Amino acid sequence: MVANPMQKMKRNSILTGLIIGLVVGLIMCAFVYLFLTKLSPTGGVVGGEAVTVCVLNKNIKSGTQITAADIITKNVSSENAPADKTIQVINGIAKIDLSAGTILTSSMLNTSPDTLTADLREQEYNMIALPTQLAAGEFIDIRLQLPNGGDYIVVSKKQVKNCNSSTVWLNMNEEEIDLMSNAIIEYYIMPGSKLYATTYIEPGLQDASVGTYVPNETISSLIANNPNINKELLNSSRYSAALTSIRNNYINAALRDYSEDALENIEEKMKDEIQSLKEAREMYFGELNSAQ
Questions:
Q1: How many Cβ atoms sit within 10 Å of the Cβ of residue 250?
Q2: Phi, psi of 145 (to 5 degrees)
Q3: Among 51, 157, 194, 285, which one is least packed by beta carbons within 10 Å?
Q4: Do residues 27 and 20 lie in contact, with contact meaning Cβ atoms separated by under 8 Å?
Q5: Is 60 exposed, middle or buried (0-12, 13-18, 19+ CB in 10 A)?
Q6: How many Å apart are CA 82 and CA 53, to the nearest integer?
Q7: How far apart are CA 255 and CA 185, in angstroms?
Q8: CA distance 274 to 278
Q9: Which tens digit of pLDDT belongs to each residue from 203-218?
Q10: 78-82, 197-201, 216-220: the lowest-pLDDT one
């Protein structure tokens, strides 16, 4: 019986399709097999010993503190792991912009200057001249500029926890609190002075400035004998003979020009500060009540 050409063509097409499907299936099985055989029991790629690494789960900008919520841990082959990988991120600050999926290394991170210590407290300041575009998360130095032209770094590389048009919130240790208290009072004494903040451009790459503001003898003695201050963490360069000499010869000289009006100036500025705090708190509670 002569086969129908149409039936023969149809049968050939079916056979060809089956053969192609079988080949594709075998290729896929081979890929799956290779994939599965390269995975370790914990999910890392085996090509050597499995090691644990920290991997970012989102994009991180330079200067941003990396927290546990920003990372996941994975097991990868030791051959694929960077030599300076880190498996623990404590107060890590990104030196550069980092993309999601990046394996974190020690060279990518700086340690946060706000390392958690027993004396760390959140402080609120409303007398500092703030940069116009300052935003939470940025890093600042606080400086005191005197009428005689002297400009001194009071505290350095503090991360802004929050801010508005007139107030900034910072984590400060006991020494920094004492330094700021001294600088604020001297700023109040001298109407021609300026207490202001400057912003770091690349906080992940820029080290903290060295403090150049030396407090007066009373505050220096308090810092030296304050049991709440870890003396090992003190910045000894701030209390060098050279900077102490500048304190005695220039800062104290500028203060003497205002000795007659010092108490009156302090009282006036303190009243302004307390009034600003009162108004800000009333506004805060007003906003809370309106939201309910």
A1: 15
A2: -105, 130
A3: 285
A4: no
A5: buried
A6: 9
A7: 11
A8: 6
A9: 888 889 999 999 999 9
A10: 78-82
Burial string for 86-119 (b: 16+ CB within 10 Å, else e) reads beebeebbbbeebeeebbbeeebbbebbbeeeeb
User: Which residue carries 């994975």 as its tokens?
Assistant: 74
d(CA 251, CA 257): 10
Rounded Cα distance between 259 and 275, Å, is: 25
Segment among 10-24, 110-124, 257-271 with least mean pLDDT: 10-24
Q: What is the 8-class DSSP label of residue 201?
A: S
CA 139/CA 154 separation, integer angstroms: 14
What's the CA gap between 146 and 93, in Å, rounded?
A: 33
Tell me the CATH class for 50-111: alpha beta
Domain ranges in the chain?
A: 50-111, 121-287
Q: What is the pTM of this model?
A: 0.68
Q: CA 73 to CA 56: how far, in whole Å?
A: 9
Residue 153 · residue 210 · CB < 8 Å: yes
